[in-house]
Design a protein that fits this description.
Elements lengths: L1 H14 L3 E3 L11 E3 L1 H20 L4 E3 L8 H6 L2 H4 L1 E6 L6 E3 H27 L5 H7 L1 H23 L3 H9 L16 E4 L2 E7 L2 E7 L4 H5 L2 H7 L6 E10 L14 E11 L4 H17 L8 E5 L9 E9 L2 E12 L1 H10 L5 E3 L4 E3 L2 E8 H12 E7 L2 E6 L10 E5 L6 H12 L5 E3 L5 H11 L3 E5 L1 H6 L1 E6 L5 E5 L3 H8 L2 H6 L3
Parallel strand pairs: 3-9, 19-20, 19-21
Antiparallel strand pairs: 1-2, 4-5, 4-6, 7-8, 9-10, 10-16, 11-12, 12-13, 13-16, 14-15, 17-18, 21-22, 22-23
Helix pairs in contact: 2-13, 5-7, 5-8, 7-8
Bound molecules: adenosine-5'-triphosphate.
Length: 511
């Protein structure tokens, strides 16, 4: 069922011009995607919702737009050259490459599925009297499976943390994991594989290797002092940025969930040392509020605290959304300490300090980061909004219940027929409204069919022009969600649409 839903999301995204595979006419490029005519609008609106919530609604947050190319030493200092790796293993027969940790995690998943089957069976057997927690704690099969999962976890963690990758290969062999393509267990050694893409830049003394940024955050850190000084910023303050990031993800799957080229929306919040946990708590709560403000059901979100912290962090949490394939990270909130700025001080030999007038001393600020993937959030919206609605009498409709302020088109203007001068009247309305809104104009096909098409791309309001319009200057407006229709004067349209699709109203929900 969930797999079915996800397949529908992918095909809907293509059929209605939201997302296409990159270079599709050349049979596509794996894990790279293009946004179509509707996708680009939805993505832009989502970015705007994020940007305004950060920059416009916080007096102490400003934005930057740093270049994708950066000095190569940036990535040495940040730890990405040496440490931004995934453990890879190749199958010698199929020549396919896999992430060793993912192969192991998928193997563990089989035990989870087995447990779920036991639970479903027992639920049926015991009916209302079923106590799931007690069953899970006492059923011998489930206990055995959980112990196995934990043992594998511990061994995987040990192999990764110690860097003794042969232990991970031994684990794969011991578990009898076979290549899903060739079915063979003929594996190479496990090797670390860096996720950064590199390219060449000509310099006066020859060519030098540079990287395509794997995160936007470093563009903020290296500009920290520029912004602080020119903007006369006082702590605490934040710098926000949206932009492309690149990662050579080998196991790229699940549509726009894991891409090789994607867009991040990141904000680094600079604070006094010692105050980071207070701000970490603030951003953890505030960011979840941002998600829920989009009208997404509470039960679809959860926090996932990191047990194992990255070398630069002293606290980290993911905001996860329940996709059809399970709860997955959409955003990360990390307390990054003074790690990055200190590293850049060390590698540049320059001071990246803040002079605190009140304390009369200078120090390197601490940083709390919020980092969300724009594409992943786009997928949350599509997945959450796409509904097949039963209309009774064997009829149904496909409707994309996007938050109205983010929909690609805010309204559609539809003359019932082309003739009798209705097109002209409709175009007049279109020309008036398009200054303020993204309007869609269409005069072909039966009106019902046109409504369905607008439902499928999430247009909140349809405006229908008919013969009565010519007599009394009124039109029918139809609301996407309720399908309610009412007659209103043309002069009222601007006010009604403004209210329905207001970004201002959406942002107010955050105050
Ligand atoms: P994951 O564990 O899923 O690989 P991550 O922990 O590496 O993600 P971060 O480095 O914290 O991710 O990046 C911040 C955000 O950027 C993520 O929460 C996610 O929304 C997004 N993101 C990261 N990698 C990708 C990708 N390959 N494709 C699309 N979005 C991504």
């Amino acid at each position: 069922m969930s797999e079915e839903l996800f397949k529908n999301v992918i095909s809907h995204a293509k059929e209605y011009g939201f997302v296409f595979q990159s270079s599709e006419v050349y049979d596509g490029l794996a894990a790279v995607y293009d946004y179509g005519q509707n996708g680009v609008e939805l993505k832009k609106n989502l970015r705007e919702y994020w940007w305004k919530s950060m920059v416009q609604l916080h007096e102490n947050i400003v934005g930057v737009d740093a270049a994708i190319f950066m000095h190569p030493k940036v990535w040495k200092a940040s730890g990405h050259v040496d440490g931004f790796n995934d453990p890879m293993i190749d199958n010698k027969d199929s020549k396919k490459r896999y992430r060793a940790d993912v192969l192991i995690e998928e193997y563990q998943e089989k035990y989870r599925v087995k447990n779920q089957k036991e639970i479903t069976k027992a639920k049926k057997r015991f009916g209302d009297a079923f106590d799931e927690a007690q069953f899970v704690a006492t059923n011998p099969n489930i206990k055995r499976n959980n112990a196995k999962i934990e043992e594998i976890d511990a061994r995987l963690k040990e192999g990764l943390e110690s860097g003794e990758l042969h232990k991970i290969k031994e684990l794969i062999e011991e578990l009898g994991i076979a290549c899903p393509v060739s079915g063979s267990k003929n594996w190479t050694e496990v090797r670390q594989f860096n996720l950064m893409y590199s390219t060449q830049m000509s310099a006066t003394d020859g060519e030098s290797q540079i990287y395509l940024r794997p995160e936007t955050a470093q563009g903020i850190f290296v500009n920290y002092l520029n912004v602080q000084k020119t903007g006369r910023m006082r702590l605490p303050f934040g710098i926000a940025q949206t932009g492309k990031a690149f990662r050579n993800e080998i196991v790229a799957r699940q549509f726009i969930m894991r891409m090789k080229e994607f867009e991040q929306m990141e904000m680094q919040f600079f604070v006094q040392p010692g105050e980071e946990m207070k701000w970490y708590a603030y951003w953890k709560e505030h960011r979840l509020k941002w998600h829920k403000n989009l009208g997404i059901d509470d039960s679809k979100y959860r926090y996932h605290d990191h047990v194992k912290l990255a070398h630069y962090a002293n606290a980290a949490v993911d905001i996860e959304y329940e996709f059809p394939f399970g709860f997955k990270e959409v955003e990360g909130i990390h307390s990054r300490t003074d790690f990055d700025l200190k590293q850049h001080e060390e590698y540049t030999g320059k001071k990246l300090r803040y002079f605190d007038n009140e304390r009369n001393e200078s120090y390197v600020p601490y940083v709390v980061e919020t980092s969300i993937g724009l594409d992943r959030m786009f997928l949350v919206l599509l997945t959450n909004s796409l509904q097949e609605e039963d209309l009774g009498d064997g009829k149904s409709r496909t409707v994309l219940r996007l938050p109205a302020a983010l929909a690609p088109n805010q309204c559609a203007i539809l003359p019932v027929v082309k003739k009798d001068g209705l097109s002209e009247v409709a175009r007049e309305i279109y020309n008036k409204l398009r200054i303020d809104f993204n309007c869609f104009y269409e005069e072909k096909d039966a009106i019902g069919k046109r409504y369905r098409r607008q439902d499928a791309i999430g247009t909140p309001i349809c405006i229908t022009v008919d013969h009565q319009t010519k007599e009394d200057n009124t039109v029918t407006i139809r609301f996407r969600d309720s399908m309610e229709q009412k007659r209103v004067a043309i002069d009222e349209l601007e006010g009604i649409i403004s209210k329905e699709v207001s970004m201002k109203a959406l942002l107010k929900g955050l105050l």
